[in-house]
Amino acid sequence: MKNDEKFLAGSPKSRETFSSGLAIFFATLGSAVGLGNIWKFPYLTGANGGGAFILIYLVCIALVGVPIMVAEFYLGRKTRSNAVGVFRKLKASKYWRVIGFMGMASSFLIMFFYSAVAGWVYAYVFKAIRGDFRGLSGLSFEQARLVVESQFSEAVSGPVSPFVWQAIAISVVALILCAGVKKGIERVTKTLMPVLLVLIVVCVIRALTLEGATEGFNFLARVDFSKVDASVVLTALGLAFFKLSLGMGTMITYGSYFTSDNNLIKTSFHVALSDTVVSLLAGLAVFPVVFTFGLAPEGGPGLLFQTIPLVFSLLPFGNILLILFFLLTSIAATTAMISMVEVVVVFFTEELKMKRTTAVLLNTSVMLIVGALTVHPSSIFGSARIFGKSFFDSFDYMSSNILLPIGGLLIAIYVGYRVSSANLKLELSNQGILKNGRLVSTYHSVLRYVTPLLLFLVFLNVIGVLTF
C-alpha cells in the first residue's frame, strides 16, 4: 500500500475551518477572481474568436483547471495542512515538498508586484471619491487626456504615492489575515464577493444603455472559428490554469479549511464557472464604454487607469460609476491577495510554530519592503534589469511562466500516480456518502493522462520552446 493512502484523521480540533459550503464557495471564488478578470479575460476573448474562444476555454477548464483544483482540494482536506506539510503528513518523499516551497516562492514573487498594482487601484478609488476626475467633461479631449495621464503617472511613478498605496493595500490584507480564517478570510469574502457581483451588475446595466453596447457585446460574443488556431488553444489552456490560482498552493491551503461534507468536485466546477461569468460580466461593463468612445480594446491595464476615468467622466452619474468600478476592482485585488499571503502564513504557523499575527506581519512586511524597493519606476532598484527585464516583469515571468505551471504539473503527477483510485474515491465521495464512483474514475483518468500532457504543452509554450 502506498504511503499516502493511509487514511489521515482530520485536522486538530484547534485548527480553524470554514463554517459552511457557501463560505467555502465565496472564499475560493475570491481567490480565483482578480485583476485579470476585469481586463485580461474579456480582451483575450474578444481578440481570439469571441464565443469560440469561450467554448475552448471551458473545455480547457474541464481538462486542466478543474482537475488541478480538485487535486489541490484533495491534498488540503485530506491532510488539513499547509502546502509543504501536506507531503510530510502523507509521508511522501521529501522531494515532493518542493511543490509547496515553489508555491510559497510564487506567492512572494506575485505579491511583490501585484500589491503595487492593487495600490494603484486603491489610489484610484480615493481619487474618484475625492472627485479628481469631475472636471474632465469641461476640458477639450487633449486637455482631459493630459490630466488623466498625469494622474496615472503620479499613481505609478510618483516619489511617494505608489509606496503609500502599496503599503495601504498590503496593510488591509494583513488586518484581514490577522483576524483568522472564520473572522478574517471567511467574513470578508462572504461580504465582499456578493458586493463585487452587485457592483459588476450595476456597471453592466449602465454600460448596456450606451451607444456602443451592441458593438461591445458582439466583441465578446461573436463566434469566429476562423481566428482559432493552435496558439489560441494554448492561450486558452494557459488562461484556464493561471486564472484559477492553481499551482501555487492557494487551493491546497483553502482546501485544508474545507468542511468534511463539502463536495470537492462540485465546488471546483462552481468556482470555475462563476469565475468565468465574473470575467464576462466585467467585459460587458467595460467594452460598451470602450466602443462608445472609440477606444482601443487591447488597452490592458492602461485601459483601466487612463481611459476608463476619461470616458466615465462624460457619462451622466459618471463619477458614481467610476467609484463603483474601481471599488469592485479593489475588491477583486484584495481577495486574490488574501489567498496568496495565506499560503505563506499558514506554513509559518504550522511548520515554524509561529503565532499567526507574527507570521502575517513578518511576511507582509517582507512583501512590502521588497516590492517597494524594486517594482516601482522610482524605486531604488526600479531601473535595474535581470536578463533585460525589470524586477516587475521578472517577478511576473518567474512566477507565472515557470513556477506555477511546474507546480501544477507536479500536483497532477502526484495525485494522478501516487494516489490510488480507491483512496481518491474515498476522499472525493466524502467517505462513501456521495455516490460518484464513475465520476471519480473519469476524473482520475483525466488527471493522469490528459491534464499533465496539456500542462506540459502550456509550459513549453510560455517559455518559448513551443510556438505557432
Please provide a brief summary of the model.
With 468 residues, this protein is mostly helical.
Overview of the molecule:
By secondary structure, the protein is mostly helical. Helix 3 crosses helix 18, helix 9 crosses helix 12 and helix 13 packs antiparallel against helix 14. The longest helix has 33 residues. The N terminus is likely disordered.
Note the total helix count.
18
| Quaternary organisation of the protein chains | single chain
What low-confidence regions span 5 or more consecutive residues with pLDDT below 50? 1-13
Number of strands: 0
The H/E string reads HHHHHHHHHHHHHHHHHH
Radius of gyration: 22 Å
What does the main sheet amount to? none
Cα shape: globular
Q: Mean of residue pLDDT? A: 89
- In angstroms, what separates the terminal alpha carbons? 44 Å
How much helix, percentage-wise, in residues?
A: over 70%
β-strand amount: under 5%
Structural class: mainly alpha
Topology, please?
Blueprint lengths: L20 H12 L2 H13 L3 H29 L5 H5 L8 H33 L10 H17 L3 H18 L2 H27 L5 H9 L8 H13 L7 H6 L8 H29 L8 H12 L5 H33 L5 H19 L16 H28 L2 H8 L8 H26 L6
Helix pairs in contact: 1-8, 1-12, 1-14, 2-9, 2-12, 3-10, 3-12, 3-16, 3-18, 5-7, 5-14, 5-15, 5-16, 6-13, 7-8, 7-14, 7-15, 8-12, 8-14, 9-12, 10-18, 13-14, 14-15, 16-18, 17-18
What would the keywords be for this entry?
468 residues; 0% strand; globular
